[in-house]
């Protein structure tokens, strides 16, 4: 079937291959392989400000 001819909303949508597909791995370990730990200020979703390493 030609999905574009069927006019499906997702026919032209780019495939998702983002971070959600790292699988059953430790997220912190996965990120540390690509992003070096850096000191700095972080803010939680609740607005709490935390200081320290981004990988603590």
Give the structure's gist in a few sentences:
The chain has 56 residues and is an alpha+beta fold. 11% of the residues lie in helices and 18% in strands.
SSE blueprint:
Layout lengths: L26 H6 L6 E5 L5 E5 L3
Antiparallel strand pairs: 1-2
Mean pLDDT: 74
Kindly report the spatial arrangement of strands forming the biggest sheet.
1-2
Low-confidence spans: none
- What is the CA-atom radius of gyration, in angstroms? 19 Å
Question: With helices defined by DSSP (H or I, 4 residues minimum), what is the helix count?
Answer: 1
* Helix and strand element order: HEE
Q: N-to-C terminal Cα separation, in Å?
A: 50 Å
Question: What profile does the largest beta sheet have?
Answer: 2 strands, antiparallel
Approximate strand percentage:
15-25%
Approximate shape: elongated
Number of strands: 2
Residue share in helix: 10-25%
| Helix and strand composition category | alpha+beta
